[in-house]
Structures are given as structure tokens and as C-alpha cells.
Design a protein that fits this description.
2 copies of one chain form a homodimer. The first copy, chain A, contains 4 helices and 6 strands. Chain A has 133 residues and is α+β, with helices and mostly antiparallel strands. In chain A, the strands form 2 sheets. Chain A has a 3-stranded antiparallel beta sheet. The first copy, chain A, has a 3-stranded mixed beta sheet with strand order 5-4-6, covered by helices on one side. The termini of chain A are far apart. Chain A binds a DNA duplex (30 and 30 nucleotides) through helix 1 and helix 3. Chains A, B: Keywords: Cytoplasm, DNA-binding, Metal-binding, Repressor, Transcription, Transcription regulation, Zinc. Chains A, B: Belongs to the Fur family.
Chain lengths: 133, 133
DNA sequence: CGCATTTTGACAACGGTTCTCATTCGCGAG
DNA sequence: CTCGCGAATGAGAACCGTTGTCAAAATGCG
């Protein structure tokens, strides 16, 4: 399952570079825009495809955000995110306890090959307490 | 924040009923189809709106599934889900430890009003181990 | 080099969700 | 009970992110 026949193309590399250069999470569209802005002529569909393969390869991290799929170059270690609902500032979290817990829970119920998604959102301290609903 | 001016309409009740009657998670579209199938004339947009308010009211649970938002009548207590990737069979989970952990982590980083999303997926034991990738 | 195969790019098509807006309905006031 | 205001509805268009199509170009192996 890991030996996917895959050619190396400059487009895919370009997407990967752009993703590395991006600060936090970016959507396929904005990444495409940024690339085009930087002189690249890569097509939108290609960006989508590249991002998908990048995720499959474990190089990119995909998260659903408000109906949009946002990607991010991810560190090799498994982690989760703490995201500010106001500004999108993201902090990476690692918690072995939680990893263990999810595996345990899945196993307890007879579920194999457990994966999990954990996202914590909040309002970070850079925002005045009275400013929002 | 909890006193949203809200009228009670038969449409919303119908949606709520339909959601209660549904087995597991259902999309707005399929719920609408089921309702129409059952003689209701509620519009699709209304189903979307009702589902949204239902979620706001804590009566329904929304989960993203493959680009679709699926809803489910949920128990009043906060919980998460363990979902089979093969058949969609769902088990509700409750874990105070995890709740506490998320709050703690958010607070540690100066994030207020923390919310979280936790989904665990796996392959449940009703499926033969050798059948899939 | 030559060929089989993969990948690309432009754009159409798709699907889910949201918006628009005139009409209807709920519900409190009189 | 009736009136009236504003929320809720419904039909369909509009939106938007994403995926499919398909001919042309690129890749890499022999």
C-alpha cells in the first residue's frame, strides 16, 4: 500500500515548496494564488492533486476548516492543533496520553486500525475579552 | 447568550422528529428526502436552517463526513464518537479526562472558551481482517 | 531514442450549502 | 378576536470548493 507509482514533477515540488513556505494552514486555492503570484503557472487542479498526494505521503496535514480543506506542511511526529477562532493562530500539541487513550478506547470496542482527529479551538489571549460575542 | 429569540414552527419540529427517527448520522439532504418521502413538504433550505439551530441548541450533533455535514440527534451530555470507516457504525464516548485535558491545554496556552472536536475512526470487528487495504 | 504511462492544465461539471426575496406564520399587544 | 411586526419558510438561483474530462506534454525505463 505504500509503493504508489509516482513520478516526480516540478509542479509537485513547487506545491511542496509553497506549502513549506506558508506560515500556517492554507487552502488549496490560496496556495495556488500564492504560487501564481510568485510566478508559477501551475494549474489549480494540479495543486489539488499535489496536495492530495502530499497528504497521502504523510508530508502534508489536512484539516477541515469551515467547509474548506486546509493543508500544512507537517512535522513527522503525530500531533494535533490548538487553533484560535479569531486569528487562526495555531499551536501544535503532542500528548501521548491522548494517543494511548484513543487506541485504548477503539480496542475496547473492537475497532482496529484506529485513527483520530482532535482539534481544540479557543480565543487566544491576544484578543480583548470584551470584543466578541 | 442562550436566549435566542426563536419561534416554534411545525417545520422545525418535523425536522427534529425526523432526526430522532433516523438511525445514525444523516445528511441534510437525505433527511430532507426522507421527510418528503414521508409526506412532509418542508423545503431543503429549511432543513438546513433547522438543523443549524438544532445544533446551536445542543439538540443535534454535527460531524463532517467526506465533505458533507451529517447530523444526528444527540444526547444532552457532551460526548464524542468512535466511527467505523467501513460501515459507519457509531459508538458514543464520554471521557471526562479528555474534556479536562482539552480545557487544561487551552488554558495553558492562554486560550479562552475552548471547544474541541474529537473523532476516532477505525474498522469495527464485524469486518474480516483480510478484506480491505 | 521511443514508447507506455503518468501528469498536467484549462475549463466544465458537480454537489453541498447559503442567499434572496416575496409570502406565510407565530405570537404578543391592543 | 384581530392586528401587526418580524421571524420563518420555500423555491430556486447563486456560490464556492472540489473533482472530472480529455487532449497535450512530460517522465522515465528499456
Amino acid at each position: 500500500m505504500t509503493d504508489v507509482r509516482r513520478r516526480s514533477t516540478k509542479q509537485r515540488e513547487a506545491v511542496r515548496d509553497a506549502l513549506d513556505a506558508a506560515d500556517g494552514f492554507v487552502s488549496a486555492q490560496s496556495l495556488h494564488a500564492a504560487m501564481r503570484d510568485g510566478g508559477s503557472t501551475v494549474g489549480l487542479a494540479t495543486v489539488y492533486r499535489a496536495l492530495a498526494t502530499l497528504e497521502t505521503d504523510g508530508v502534508a496535514d489536512a484539516v477541515q476548516h469551515d467547509g474548506e480543506t486546509v493543508y500544512r506542511a507537517c512535522t513527522p511526529t503525530h500531533h494535533h492543533h490548538l487553533i484560535c477562532r479569531e486569528c487562526g493562530r495555531t499551536i501544535e500539541l503532542e500528548a501521548d496520553r491522548i494517543e494511548a487513550w484513543t487506541q485504548q478506547v477503539a480496542a475496547d470496542h473492537g475497532y482496529r486500525d484506529a485513527r483520530h482527529t482532535i482539534e481544540i479551538t479557543g480565543i487566544c489571549d491576544r484578543h480583548a475579552p470584551g470584543g466578541d460575542a
